[in-house]
Design a protein that fits this description.
Elements (H helix, E strand, L loop, with lengths): L2 H13 L2 H8 L3 H15 L4 E2 L6 E2 L1 H28 L4 E7 L7 H11 L3 E7 L2 H9 L5 E6 L8 E15 L11 E2 H4 L4 E3 L5 H12 L6 E4 L3 H9 L4 E5 H4 L6 E18 L5 H16 L8
Parallel strand pairs: 3-4, 3-5, 7-11, 8-9, 8-10
Antiparallel strand pairs: 1-2, 5-11, 6-10, 6-11
Helix pairs in contact: 1-2, 1-3, 1-4, 2-3
Family: Belongs to the LysR transcriptional regulatory family.
InterPro entries: HTH-type_LysR_regulators, LysR_HTH_N, LysR_subst-bd, WH-like_DNA-bd_sf, WH_DNA-bd_sf
Function: Required for the induction the katG gene for catalase. Involved in the response to hydrogen peroxide.
Length: 299
């Protein structure tokens, strides 16, 4: 097995597409197909189901994937260890974020690359659940994710960015437009506007409803809290939002929910991280976040 074969195999498995894998690896698609065919000959088994629609792994492919990721991670760590000894910091730092957060991530990246120009950085946005999974299996080095106030994802350490209430928000003309506090069961009597399943805020809301034996009617979902704000302003329902997004907006009335819902945004990383570049970037980001230098209000 060769490094390039494993890289292309992992890319196809994660992208579920030869075309997207080739784009990600910055090569022509035939090169990806050829290398994976060589890998299949080396292991003596087909690794992928090639058919219309998303590419799927065979049982042999499923068995190989975690070992391929581990082998590539070991190669990267070996190169990083040599670079660290020689004083050269290079490699790739993979960062993930939720769609709305107060961290000036572009500023952090630009400052770090200015000091370490040999570093490559990638940035993806996704739901919290997906980001935690990618941290756990090594696809990401660090991520900004939402968790509950009493949660600690296994295998991860984190620095708290924000810790705030989750509130309900409606247009002033809404039937709830004069309420000061809204009980959770009352909220569930109205159409709810929420982030989708897999996001941290939605997990906090769904968990609270399940514990109270409530089944909310999720009328609308949107991937960004800003979109939730707009739908609530136009009277489409009750938006479930972080307090910082719900308060201080024209044409929007915010209410605390009883019992209180709270959530945290955190800067998270693998406890056993070995990538020197990612470790250095994470340490710098933590210092800047703790000092407030790289944190701005969410608009």
């Amino acid at each position: 097995m060769e490094r390039r074969q494993l890289e292309y195999f992992v890319a196809v498995a994660e992208e579920t597409s030869f075309t997207r894998a080739a784009r990600r690896e910055r090569v022509a698609q035939p090169a990806v197909s050829a290398q994976i065919q060589r890998l299949e000959r080396a292991v003596g088994q087909p690794l992928l189901h090639r058919s219309a629609g998303p590419v799927r792994l065979t049982s042999a492919g499923e068995a190989l994937l975690p070992h391929a990721r581990a082998a590539l991670a070991a190669l990267r760590d070996g190169q990083s260890a040599v670079d660290e000894v020689t004083g050269l910091l290079r490699g790739v730092v993979a960062i993930g974020t939720v769609t709305a957060h107060p961290v000036e991530i572009a500023r952090l990246m630009a400052d770090f690359i200015a000091d370490h120009p040999a570093i490559e950085m990638t940035l993806v946005a996704d739901a919290s659940d997906a980001l935690v999974d990618k941290l756990a299996d090594g696809r990401l080095d660090v991520a900004i994710v939402s968790i509950g106030v009493d949660e600690g994802p296994p295998g991860l350490d984190f620095e708290v960015i924000t810790d705030e209430s989750i509130e309900a928000a409606v247009a002033p003309r809404h039937a709830l437009g004069r309420r000061k506090v809204l009980r959770l069961d009352e909220l569930c009597d109205h159409p709810v506007i929420s982030l989708p399943v897999g996001t941290g805020l939605r997990s906090r809301f769904d968990t609270a409803c399940a514990a109270a034996g409530l089944r909310p009617h999720i009328a609308f979902e949107a991937s960004s809290p800003v979109e939730l704000v707009e739908m609530a302003r136009y009277g489409l329902g009750v938006a479930v939002l972080p307090q910082s997004m719900a308060r201080g907006r024209t044409n929007l009335h915010a209410m605390p929910v009883s019992p209180e819902l709270r959530g945290r945004l955190v800067w998270a990383w693998r406890r056993d991280r070995t990538n020197p570049a990612a470790r250095r970037f994470c340490e710098r980001a933590r210092r800047m976040i703790a000092s407030g230098v790289a944190v701005a209000p969410v608009s």
